[in-house]
Amino acid sequence: MLWVSKFGIANGQATEDSPWVGAYPDPNRGEDSSDLYVIVQPALPGSEEFCADLRNAIGETFHKKKMSLTGGLLGAVKAAHENLREWNGRSLREHQIGAGVSLLAVRAREAYLGQAGPASAVYYRDFAATEIVPTLPEAQGPLGVVDEVWPQFTRYDLVNGDRFVILTPGLTAKIGEEALAETLQLPPDLALKDLFRRLREETLCGAVLIAVEPEPAQPGSGTAP
Question: N or C: which end of the chain has fewer CB within 10 A?
Answer without folding.
Answer: C
